[in-house]
Specification:
- There is one protein chain.
- The protein is an alpha+beta fold and about 450 residues long.
- The protein has two domains: about 45-310, Bira Bifunctional Protein, Domain 2 (BirA Bifunctional Protein, domain 2); about 350-440, Ferrodoxin-fold anticodon-binding domain (Alpha-Beta Plaits, 2-Layer Sandwich), CATH 3.30.70.380.
- Helix content is about 30%, strand content about 25%.
- It has twelve helices and 18 strands.
- The strands form five sheets. The chain has a seven-stranded mixed sheet.
- Strand 3 and strand 4 form a beta hairpin.
- It is globular and about 75 Å long.
- The N and C termini lie far apart (about 75 Å).
- InterPro entries: aa-tRNA-synth_II, aa-tRNA-synth_II/BPL/LPL, Fdx_antiC-bd, Fdx_antiC-bd_sf, Phe-tRNA-synth_IIc_mito, Phenylalanyl-tRNA_Synthase.
Length: about 450
């Protein structure tokens, strides 16, 4: 190799590295937990939402979410054992940053499903997002060889703002799978799969869900036995949580990743309250994850919904409170103790309205309310108790579209003055003018 050629190759290498690093530095990024992610037109995660990562309320002993988590885990540990050891393993510290493949594709969620929309999810970029459900980890745990496991953690969804909705909440998901000999220990003549299903080449079989009672690959006996086990286990769970006398009912449901599917509702404070969704795992998910010799059920529930019902907590924001008056009510208590939350004090609300004309290319039907809610929460933080759409208006002459929202401000730990609320409200007005090109009325 000539000296000149060596110099040229070295210079080319240096220029390539320089150009690459310069290009990378010039691209906008999002920093999450010391990791830089390239952002794009899908990016909608906000600094406020990122600030919630790592709080892990479900692992903080004095938090009601942790108490509910421990009670459910304890129920599964006691209900399922093998040779004196728990059958289920627990995963409660999985990273909330997942790929779109994990969150959607692995779970057979169609590309046009509304749950993929930017208005519903917090995207880091088009390939990565903050998980919208704990089920996002199901396939990776199945691929690792696990059969029975619980997944617990924080999940992120864009939503309205009121006392029962928050952009971060906590889910507990469970998967239980069984082989033929486990499901039918005394009936070797029975099988999980229909005779037409080739267990050695499952991908050659087109599994359908047109039959409301079962997937086409499964025998009716296997599906019905799994359904009976699933429902008995979940009835036992809600009885442990709410008492043996709790009234319940099953409602047929649809989820892309299970079939058949159901929701369990309990009769609570004179209303039917949905507490979880469940079903028989789609066989395609199991086949893609590894050996296709099992049938599985799965369910998922929200810890906040259960905690608020069990302990009479009126506002979901209280789960994030650091106030000792809140936390001490749950300290050093027996797991199954009956606890009724008592307000430390009641601070008054402050309500301000905000009205604005939309740009000509946006209508009241195409305006993305969740974008507006995120911006309000970014500026107002956790003192935003509720945002309600108060009025829609189309000017009869100009045909301009207008929206009016009421923003309810309330601090959980002190009284807000109207002056400080007015300042925050003005900051919100300025921000939406800049972000959405609206005109304040």
């Amino acid at each position: 190799m000539t000296k000149l050629f060596k110099i040229r190759r070295l210079l080319s290498s240096v220029l390539h590295k320089y150009n690459y690093s310069t290009a990378a530095k010039s691209m906008p990024t999002v920093k999450i937990n010391s990791t830089e992610f390239i952002s794009d037109d899908y990016t909608n995660v906000t600094p406020k939402i990122i600030s919630y990562l790592g709080r892990n309320l479900h692992l903080q002993n004095d938090n009601p979410l942790s108490i509910v988590r421990q009670r459910i885990v304890q129920y599964f540990y006691k209900s399922f054992t093998h040779r004196g050891k728990p059958t289920f393993s627990v995963y409660d510290n999985l990273s909330p940053i997942v790929s779109t493949k994990q969150n959607f594709d692995d779970l057979l969620i169609p590309v046009d499903h509304p749950s993929r929309a930017k208005s519903d999810c917090y995207y880091i970029n088009k390939d990565m997002l903050l998980r919208a459900h704990m089920t996002a980890h199901q396939s990776e745990l199945l691929r690792s060889g696990l059969n029975n496991f619980l997944m617990i953690g924080d999940v992120y969804r864009r939503d309205e703002i009121d006392s029962t909705h928050f952009p971060v909440f906590h889910q507990l998901d469970v998967v239980r799978s069984q082989r033929k000999e486990q499901l039918f220990p005394n009936h070797p003549d029975l099988d999980i799969f229909e005779p037409t299903f080739d267990k050695e080449r499952p991908h050659l079989f087109t599994n359908t869900i047109t039959d409301p009672t079962k997937q086409s690959c499964h025998t009716l006996e296997a599906t019905k036995l799994m359904e009976a086990q699933l429902k008995n286990h979940l009835i036992g769970l809600v009885q442990v949580l709410f008492g043996d006398d709790i009234k319940y009912r099953w409602v047929d449901a649809y989820f892309p990743f299970t079939h058949p599917s159901w929701e369990l509702e309990i009769y609570y404070e004179n209303n039917w309250l949905e507490v979880l969704g469940c079903g028989i795992v789609r066989n395609e998910i199991l086949a893609n994850a590894g050996p296709n010799n099992t049938i599985a059920y799965a369910f998922g529930l929200g810890l906040e919904r259960l905690a608020m019902a069990l302990y009479k907590i009126p506002d979901i924001r209280l789960m994030w409170s650091q106030d000792s008056g809140f936390l001490t009510q749950f300290q050093n208590k027996e797991l199954n103790a009956k606890i009724t939350y008592k307000p430390v004090s009641v601070y008054p609300q402050c309500t301000n309205d905000i009205s604005f004309w939309l740009p000509e290319n946006i209508t009241i039907d195409t305006f993305m309310s969740n974008d507006f809610y995120d911006l309000v929460r970014d500026i107002g933080g956790d003192i935003i108790e509720q945002v309600k759409l108060k009025d829609k208006f189309i000017h009869p002459k100009t045909k301009k579209h207008s929206l009016c929202f009421s923003i309810v401000y309330r601090h959980l730990e002190r009284t807000l003055t109207q002056a400080e609320v007015n300042k925050i409200h003005k900051d919100i007005e300025n921000a939406i003018v800049s972000a959405f090109n609206v005109v304040i009325r």
